[in-house]
Amino acid sequence: MTIAARLQELGITLPKAAAPVASYVPVVVDGRRAYLSGQLPFVDGKLVTGKLGDTVSLEEGQAAARACGLMILAQLEAAGLLERVEQVVKLGGFVASTPDFTDQPKVANGASDLMVEVFGDAGKHARSAVGVPVLPLDAAVEVDAIIAITA
């Protein structure tokens, strides 16, 4: 089954790949690895902003991380790499949060669970989930990725 067919089966429509907001490119391919720049959470075209532990609930944070994951898939599609995904190697989850918020791993599960949902075993990956005081544009979550692709 193609990834496009799997997305359709899951009822997932990918957003339009976001343009970079600074001096970088969304995807760099080096050999059989695609390195994806951090993606921000857009839900219904609007950036999810704020901090976990303050103005953003755990559930909203998980949805924001899933939105970051959808943007990772959209960037792969825009680069012509979506059907070449062999393995999701690693996700990096960055969660804007208050000093007492400690559920960053639960937030990052929003993106992690999406990868397994879409790619099955090939979506299982290593991961980091880090709390940070602020993210670009006051985003609540940012997720980057390393993806193994077929030759």
Report what the structure shows.
By secondary structure, this protein is an alpha+beta fold. The protein has a single domain, classed as RutC-like (60s Ribosomal Protein L30, Chain: A, 2-Layer Sandwich), CATH 3.30.1330. Helix content is 30%, strand content 28%. It has three helices and seven strands; from the N terminus they run H-E-E-E-E-H-E-H-E-E. The strands form two sheets. The protein has a five-stranded mixed sheet. Strands 3-4 form a two-stranded antiparallel ribbon. Strand 1 and strand 2 form a beta hairpin. It is globular, with a radius of gyration of 14 Å.
Map the helices and strands.
Blueprint: H1 3-10, E1 27-30, E2 33-39, E3 42-43, E4 46-47, H2 58-78, E5 85-96, H3 104-119, E6 126-132, E7 141-149
Parallel strand pairs: 5-6
Antiparallel strand pairs: 1-2, 2-7, 3-4, 5-7
Helix pairs in contact: 2-3
Pfam families: YjgF_endoribonc
Protein name: RidA family protein
Organism: Qipengyuania soli
* Rg: 14 Å
What's the number of structural domains?
1
Helix content: 25-40%
Give the strand order of the largest sheet, numbering strands 1, 2, ... along the chain: 1-2-7-5-6
- The CATH class, by name, is Alpha Beta
How many individual helices? Answer: 3
- The CATH superfamily label reads RutC-like
Distance between the termini: 19 Å
Question: Which structural class matches the secondary elements?
Answer: alpha+beta
Model regions low in confidence, pLDDT < 50 over at least 5 residues:
none
How large is the share of residues in beta strands? 25-35%
What summary fits the major beta sheet? 5 strands, mixed
- Provide the CATH architecture: 2-Layer Sandwich
Q: How is the CATH topology named?
A: 60s Ribosomal Protein L30, Chain: A
Domain Endoribonuclease L-PSP/chorismate mutase-like: 5-141
Protein name: RidA family protein
InterPro entries: Endoribo_LPSP/chorism_mut-like, RutC-like_sf
